Amino acid sequence: MRRPSATALTRALVICGLVLGALFAGLPVLWMFASSFKSNTQIFAYPPRLIDESFSLAPYRAVLTDPQQLRFFFNSYFVSTLVTLLTTLVGILAGYSFSRYKFRFKNSLNLLIIGVQSVPPITLMIPYFGLIVLLKLYNTYWALILTYMVFTLPYAIIMMTGYFNTLPRDLDEAVLIDGGSSLVILWRILVPISLPGIVSVGVYTFMLAWNEFLFALTLTRTNEMRTVPVGIQLLMGQHSFEWNQMMAMSVLGSLPVLILFLVFQRYFISGMAAGSVKG
Amino acid sequence: MQKSRVSTGLKRPGRHRLMKGLVPYLYLSPTLVLLAVLSLIPIATVFTYSLLDNVIITRDAPTFVGISNYLDIISKSHFRQALQNTLVFAIASVIAHFILGLSFALLLNTNLIGANAKALFRVIYILPWVFTASIIAILWRLLLNPNGVVNYLLISVGLANEPIEWLSSRQLALQSVTFINIWAGYPFYMVSFLAGLQGIPTSLYEAAKIDGANGVQLFRYITLPQLKPIITSLAMLDFIWTTHQFTLIWMTTGGGPIRSSEVLSTYTYKTAFSAFQFSQASTIAMIILALTTFVAIFYVRNQRMAAE
Hey, of A122, A207, A238, which one would you mutate to test binding to chain B, going by the most B CBs within 10 A of its CB? Predict the structure, then answer.
């Protein structure tokens, strides 16, 4: 008699905890979503309501018909996509080297790459400013692409090395015996079977690039080059707090990552956990 | 045909071997060039700046001043306040992230609810992590606005008598941004703990239950010790990331009011790009790097031990 009631009590407590947690995590997001459909005068209406009579798509229309804000989105997509492609490519090559070869300085180089992950962006920002101007890259896409790669690449290399390490070397030897080169091993054999790992690296890289703020703020100057995170901040200054438009832009700006996350959830969680825990 | 390929594949003359020795470096070359130009050289530059005076924007030639920039900075009360705020912000975030992340992971790991409900809760719990810091900053400025929904709720349940200035009062600004950072950052722990919990062999729990262990004892003597490697690496990684946090603070309080929520990263940014004191900014940047490296050394050592 006592046991079923005890488990029923535990169950009630667990469900209570789950619901409270969901409110903590979800309510702010729900409020963002709801506010993005309101008119700006209703944002701080008293008492607050989730949906009111001002409900419309107007804030979205305003964001999506403003050429300047569309430009922010284009820039973010362009930069993030290129960073993702380049990081994955360079990361695969480096991971292959670490996984399949023995060479001098291998350990120190590996250590260096792990170490770069923990360099504060703010420390690099001061010399970057001069360096990027010197390289004539100031206020260009390349300024963002190259500096973002400093932070996306170490994770990609660590992940790819780990992934390649799990693949048996018999595969490589079969190709070698057939007279294939090491590049053939990589592209024809290892890359196709590593697709899940590569996808997880790609998604994570895209997220990092899409979210970057500090370098986008300091290394670009004109609105033609700004990305979404910086663009949102500009919206805050220019339009004397068009809260509904800022929320609409926030929803739109979060969609790519949300979709990527939902589609690749499985890869992503396992890859993320492996990357953070096993390094 | 097949045989001749085998023989050429296995014979390796001297020159060929030398070439082969270069192959791993060849594959690494894009990485090495990028990291040398955009990581090692900049760190050397910022270190040099920190030992000089008159860098970047002045007409006068830079002069070597040794460690006097460091002594200057350390003696400044603004710096000490920023350092203290950074530590409060980081340590409170790490502890709260750990508690929330582990609690949510344990809740999600239960067998008491169905798989679909679990999947739904998991997505909701991960939500804060999907949003970028600048969007999180704007969202919480809306929520914590004196006329905003948080104050409305607090007043209507009687927890507050009048609207609270969460982000613009000196007493509350640091606590508020820390809270926002806690909300934004726990999912990373939760996801890692979920993976870790699934890796604990069920046989351990079964054996302990046969010995008569209760739920608390199972948690204390099996779950926590099994998660310990994950806990240490997460805490160190999170401490490093939190001390680097710039966007969230920059876009909510900007370090204010009157430096009450100033952290080392916003202080560095202001010193460089508002005051144009590049030598001093470099010095603070080097101090952040040193603080981070100190933790990172333990992190790398921990990772190495886990790998072996």
Answer: A122
